[in-house]
Amino acid sequence: MCIRDRYMGKYVLSDKTSKAVVACAFSKDNAYVAFVDLSSNHTVYVVDGKNGKLLWKKASGKPVVYGVCWISNKEFVTCGASSIKFWNVDSQEDKDGNGFDSEIMSCVAVDGKGNTHVSSVSGKVYIFNGTKVVNKITPHKGKINSMVIYDNMMLTAGDDSRVLISEVGSYKTICEIKTKAIPRAADMLGNLVVVGDIKGGITLYKDGKEVDSWLGHHEGEVWGLNLAENLIVTAGDDNKVILWDYNNCRAVKEACINSKPGQKLKDNVPGKPKMPDNQSSRSVCYNAATKEIAIATNNGELHIRDIKDIEKNKKVINCSKRWIEQMCYSPKGDMLAVGTHANELLVYSVPGYELRGKLEGHATPLICIDWSTDGTYLRSLDEGFDMIFWKLPGFTKDPDGAVNTKDKDWETQSCKIGWSVQGIYPPGTDKTHVNYVAKSRDGKLVATGDDWGFVNVYNYPCGKGSKCYSLRGHSEQVPRIVFSKDDDYIFSVGGNDKAVIQWKK
Predict the structure, then answer these.
(1) Which residue in 62, 412, 414, 504 has a CA-CA distance of 20 to 30 Å to 159?
(2) Beta carbons of 363 and 382 less than 8 angstroms apart
(3) Are 435 and 454 in contact (CB under 8 A)?
(4) pLDDT tens digits for 210-258?
(5) Interatomic CA distance for residues 437 and 440, integer angstroms
(6) CB–CB of 271/220 below 8 Å?
(7) 421 neighbors 413 (Cβ within 8 angstroms)
């Protein structure tokens, strides 16, 4: 459990729970914070709001807890699976609420008079005075996912794709907003309402009308990341390809990978995405020469699209029976190298996308590919950390490639083994903890993304014992990183946290 000073940027670490924290809230005077964990007894923790010191903890019981809210400076309420409890900080006692139906409670909020409002998965809101229900309303059809109360106004957002603003007391609807997707979270400030939906979008409303919106990924993991002119492009397990304007820090275009669901191979992709393999992607790259985006799907297809029309396929190529983790265009943009989990390196001509070479020699799936700057060599790395050098134009394996290319410049540095990156591994770790490597355009820096959610920046080349500057922001592994054209920024995606982060130099 962490308490962060928003002005100083410091974290106060509190007691460590045995399981994940599912709910937390500050008291009205910020003197306390109440946490609830996901242990079998769903322990409630009360800590000092300033220093994070644990004051007391107590088991709530077997029902899962989904929400916590403070009634006063000394009292708070928790709600969950057929459970509503009222707690007192000083006595450390809890009392069960009564008068409500036996169902899962989803959210809790308190009005200015201290009356507690608890929402349910059936669309009801129970109003408590003390521990007893004094009123019950049903504003939604289906689960209520979010509820807040400010200045005698209650906002609720439900599975019926509606956001309602009602007057506390009469519960008369003042404003109704029909959302584009099921809202998962909502908040209001004056005449403004912001809604986060199940598809990863955020929409801002003013006086009930949409005034702005932001796109995002929402399902599975996000691995696909590449630079496309003054944009970045991402692809994920949610059937989405998104273009982001990083100068304005927002998504500008979204397209679906495939509108028709296909088959899903068992254990084909780590993380077990919910979407079919033909609607999921973990690799995307951009060709500046042809202004094209290549999207690799988890069923081994390759989709080629124009940067100005990312919704339409110009060409679809069946590359492999397994998923594609890595691919990159040659420096001149006249070839595309594709690394598959069928242990093959495939090279296609551009713009025709005819197969030029099927390079075999790896015993495990390919995870990294680099082109030499002059386009005469390729190097590929597999999961077993076997790196093979390929000589062009004949696409022949060069057993002495490490020696023969020692004076060559490499356009990219995605391969995570070799003399130039030998210092990227922290002591006590193996090579699997570093997921990806990227070199700056000027060749002075190299960055890594690791299993702990860090982006680590080193001087390049990176010798043994090199120190790094670690950037912390992701809550999950970092599978892809890329530098901007001027090296002023690093972009990273966080796998299962589905976040795209822009780091300024």
Answers:
(1) 62
(2) yes
(3) no
(4) 999 998 998 899 999 999 989 999 999 999 999 999 999 899 999 999 9
(5) 10
(6) yes
(7) yes
